[in-house]
């Protein structure tokens, strides 16, 4: 059986960013120990139940670094019951990293960190509610490297209130020169229930045309600097693609532990409710139906630069209408939205910009 990916959710943050709808709570430090114990117990139970091995571990949130190095190291050690990992990622917020954090997690096996930068421009970071400044981010990167963690990913955001071409270029310059090996670049989405959503009419948001131009500009700047685009929002130096996240896009199996964490195992999807107290109390997961359908496969594969290999797909889903897919693929390719050689369909950067519309046309 194939190795699965293991995801652990840490549902705590120092403060709530105004655009974020991830499941996390603030001011809960009294819960950190009991939550860590609940995670460790749950990891052991899941291992007994599934009898599977995992080769990637991703500790995300929330803000995992808020738990401190010792608790994160205990979680990593407990997770080793699933086997030896080829990649162990810990998400870090530069404003919540204690002295020696990286040394401690590196000693337990963490070899990759993902840093929430969002923007290198102070005024933009402030408008996003980010507490740390550029200096803290630079220190964080240096400390991680000194601890032996060189596989560093930074998150950046397009479409931030007040963002201009020159301010975005400043962020791109920083990403290219800061020592990161991987960059995730997401467009700001106004998620219902967030502060930004409620105040959307007051925000000075760049329009869609500007954001689309910035996306194409960013792709060419990163690629010229050696960061190859391998997914719609992800870039890396060769060999530094995220192994864990590739499992999601390749439609492979993964187990998520912690409130709001989702799983896909044995063709079924399931998740934990967004409720930390219930998780600590031993709540069960909620079934979320069948997964790994042909539609899902198309949707996920087309996020990847490597695209959709029709021969591979036929081996998995022999009953799909491949003539219809090929017909549509030719049309996208004639319009510069994709490349199609009769066997493999890959979206171009222009195609990535309207990937939802393209996918809809292929699967309905
Ligand atoms: S630190 Fe991250 S998870 Fe926490 S509120 Fe901000 S964006 Fe969301």
3D architecture notes:
By secondary structure, the protein is of the alpha/beta class. Helix content is 40%, strand content 22%. It is built from 15 helices and 17 strands. The strands form four sheets. Strands 9-10-8-7-6-5-4-1-11 form a nine-stranded mixed sheet, sandwiched between helices. α1 runs parallel beside α2 and α2 runs parallel beside α3. The longest helix is centred in the first third of the chain and has 19 residues. The mean pLDDT is 95. The site of iron/sulfur cluster has 11 residues, from loops.
- Number of E-state strands: 17
| Estimated helix fraction | 25-40%
* Gyration radius from CA atoms, angstroms: 21 Å
Spatial arrangement of strands, main beta sheet? 9-10-8-7-6-5-4-1-11
Give the low-confidence spans: none
Decide which structural class fits the backbone. Answer: alpha/beta
Q: Indicate the mean pLDDT.
A: 95
| Tally of helical segments | 15
What's the layout of helices and strands?
Layout: E1 4-10, E2 12-13, E3 25-26, H1 32-50, E4 54-61, H2 69-79, E5 87-92, H3 101-108, E6 112-118, H4 122-127, H5 134-146, E7 151-158, H6 165-177, E8 182-187, H7 195-198, H8 208-224, E9 228-231, E10 234-236, H9 243-249, E11 254-257, E12 262-265, E13 268-271, H10 276-280, E14 286-290, H11 294-301, E15 308-309, H12 310-316, H13 322-334, E16 338-340, E17 344-347, H14 349-353, H15 355-363
Helix pairs in contact: 1-2, 2-3, 6-8, 13-15
Residues 13, 16-17, 20, 22, 24, 61-63, 93, 116 line the site of iron/sulfur cluster.
């Amino acid at each position: 059986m194939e190795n699965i990916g293991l995801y652990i959710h840490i549902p705590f943050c120092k403060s709530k960013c105004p655009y974020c709808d991830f499941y996390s709570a603030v001011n809960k430090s009294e819960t950190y120990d009991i939550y860590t114990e609940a995670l460790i117990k749950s990891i052991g139970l899941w291992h007994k139940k599934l009898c599977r091995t995992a080769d990637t571990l991703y500790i995300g949130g929330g803000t995992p670094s808020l738990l401190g190095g010792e608790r994160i190291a205990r979680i990593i050690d407990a997770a080793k019951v699933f086997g030896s990992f080829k990649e162990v990622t810990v998400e870090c917020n530069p404003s919540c990293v204690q002295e020696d954090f990286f040394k401690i997690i590196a000693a337990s096996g963490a070899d990759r960190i993902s840093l929430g930068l969002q923007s290198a421009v102070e005024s933009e970071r402030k408008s996003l509610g980010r507490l740390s400044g550029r200096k803290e981010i630079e220190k964080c990167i240096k400390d991680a490297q000194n601890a032996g963690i060189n596989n560093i990913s930074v998150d950046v955001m397009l479409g931030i209130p007040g963002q201009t071409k020159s301010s975005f270029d400043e962020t791109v310059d920083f990403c290219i020169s800061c020592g990161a090996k991987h960059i995730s670049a997401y467009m700001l989405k106004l998620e219902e229930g967030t502060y930004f959503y409620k105040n959307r009419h007051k925000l000075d948001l760049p329009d869609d045309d500007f954001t689309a131009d910035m996306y194409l500009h960013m792709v060419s700047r990163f690629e010229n600097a050696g960061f190859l685009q391998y997914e719609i929002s992800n870039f890396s130096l060769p060999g530094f693609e995220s192994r864990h996240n590739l499992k999601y896009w390749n439609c492979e199996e993964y187990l998520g532990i912690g409130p709001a964490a989702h799983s896909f195992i044995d063709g079924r999807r399931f998740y934990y409710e967004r409720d930390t107290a219930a998780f600590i109390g031993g709540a069960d997961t909620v079934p979320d139906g069948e997964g790994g359908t042909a539609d899902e496969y198309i949707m996920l594969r087309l996020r990847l630069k490597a695209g959709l290999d029709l021969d591979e797909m036929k081996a998995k889903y022999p009953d799909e209408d491949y003539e219809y897919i090929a017909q549509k693929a030719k049309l996208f390719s004639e319009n510069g939205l994709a490349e199609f050689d009769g066997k493999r369909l890959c979206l171009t950067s222009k195609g990535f910009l309207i990937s939802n519309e393209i996918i809809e046309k292929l699967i309905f």
